[in-house]
Amino acid sequence: MELRQLYYFVKVAKKEHVTQAAEELHVAQSAVSRQIHQLEEELGVKLFVQKGRNLQLTPVGALFLKRAEVILADLERAVIEIHEFLDPEKGEIRLGFPHSLGISLIPQVVAAFRKLHPNVKFRFKQGMYPTLIRDLTKGEIDLAFISPFPKEHEHVCGEVLLTEELYAILPPGHSLSAEKEIELKQLEQETFVLFSEGYSLRPIVWDACERAGFVPKIGFEGEETDTIRGLVAAGMGVSLLPEMALDYRGPLQPEKVKICNPSVTRTIGLIRRSNEKLPLVAKVFHGFLVRYFQDRQDR
Questions:
Q1: CA–CA separation, 112 and 106 (whole Å)
Q2: Residues of the chain with pLDDT under 50
Q3: How does the average pLDDT of the chain come out, rounded?
Q4: Res 85: pLDDT
Q5: pLDDT value at position 175?
Q6: Helix 29-43 with 18-25: angle, nearest 10 deg
Q7: Same fold? 3-75, 90-299
Q8: CA-CA 20 to 30 A from 125: which of 139, 180, 247, 282?
Q9: Residue 182's CB: how many other CB atoms inside 10 A?
Q10: Three-class HEC string of 254-280
Q11: CATH among 3.40.920.10, 1.20.5.440, 1.10.486.10, 1.10.10.10 for 3-75
C-alpha cells in the first residue's frame, strides 16, 4: 500500500467524483482510477459504488476513510514537526476561524505576529462552529478561534480571549437611528435579517430577542457578515452584529445603536486539541495571542 493511494482515495471520497478529484490533484483521471483499483485489489474489498455520475463510499469504505484521514494527518504533523525542529521560524500554523472574524481581527493578529516572526506561514480554514470543532479534532487545523467559546467538550480545550458587545444595526434614516441606546424590545415589530442555521451568531440574536420578550420575525437570511450588513443598509430589515463586524466602511452603511436591555454579547475563544502537544510554531503563536488579548484588556 502506497501513501499516494491513500491521498487519492481520500480526495475521491471527499469529491465523490474521480474527475473532480483528478483535477484538484493535478493528475490524469486514469491515474486516480488505477490507484483506487489497485488499493481495492490489495484490500480485497470495494471502497466505492457508482451512484449516478458520482461515487459513494461503501460501509467498509467509510470505515477505511476515517483511518486513512488519521494516518495522513499524523504524517502531515510529523513533516511539520521536522521542519520546525530544523527551523521553528519557518514553520506553518494551521488556523481556523469563523467568517465574522475574518474582516478585521484575524488580519490584525496575523500581521502583528508576522512582524515578530516574518518567515512563519499560515494555512487558514474558515467555517461554522461545528465545522471548526470537527476540523480541529480531526487534526486538519491546530488552533481555532471560535464563538461562542465551548464550555465543555471532550476533545478540545482552550481559553476565552475576549467578550464582545453586539449592536443593533438599522437602515439609514430609521426612526431609532438617532437614539444613543435602545431596548431590544423596541425592535419587536421589525423584520430581522439573520444568519442562516448553523452560524453561531444566529442563536445569540434569537436568545436575546426571547429574553426581551418576543420572537424575531425573519425576513432574510445570509451566510456572510457583509451580506447581513448590506441587506440592513439596503432597508431590508434590522439585525444585531458584533462591533468588529462593523469596522468596514463602504458606500452603503447601516446605522449602529447600542442595546441597553438586555445586554447582548458573544465570547470569542481560542481552542486546541485536548491532551495533545501543539506543534512548536503553533505553541509560540498561542502564547502570542494570549498576551495580545490580555494587553488589549489592560488598556
A1: 10
A2: none
A3: 89
A4: 62
A5: 94
A6: 110
A7: no
A8: 247
A9: 18
A10: CEEEEEEECCCEEEEEEEEECCCCCCH
A11: 1.10.10.10
Measured distance between the N- and C-terminal CA atoms of the chain, rounded to whole angstroms: 57
Q: Which long-range contacts (CB under 8 A, 24 or more apart) does 10-13 make?
A: 10/65, 10/68, 10/69, 10/72, 12/36, 12/48, 12/55, 13/47, 13/48, 13/57, 13/61, 13/65
Quick one: pLDDT at residue 250? 66
Task: Give me the sign of the Cα torsion angle 22, 27, 28, 31.
Answer: negative
> Residue 13 forms beta bridges with which residues?
none
Model confidence over 276-288: pLDDT tens digits?
A: 888 888 999 999 9
Domain segments of the chain as ranges: 3-75, 90-299
One-letter amino acid for residue 230 of the chain:
G
Q: pLDDT at position 223, please? A: 85
Structure confidence at residue 253 (pLDDT):
86
Q: Which residues contact 10 (CB under 8 A, 6 or more apart)?
A: 65, 68, 69, 72
**Hey, what CATH class is 90-299 in?**
alpha beta
Range list of β-strands (E), 89-189: 92-97, 121-126, 143-146, 156-170, 181-183
Contact status, residue 279 vs residue 77, Cβ threshold 8 Å:
yes
95 neighbors 130 (Cβ within 8 angstroms): no
Q: How far apart are alpha carbons 194 and 238 in whole angstroms?
A: 9
C-alpha cell at 93: 500554523
- pLDDT given for residue 209 in this prediction: 96
Closest CA to 201 of 98, 274, 52: 98
pLDDT of residue 99: 84
Give the C-alpha separation, 180 to 166, whole Å: 15
CB-based contact 117:91 (threshold 8 Å): no
Cα-based distances in Å from 157 to 144, 145, 151, 269: 11, 12, 9, 10
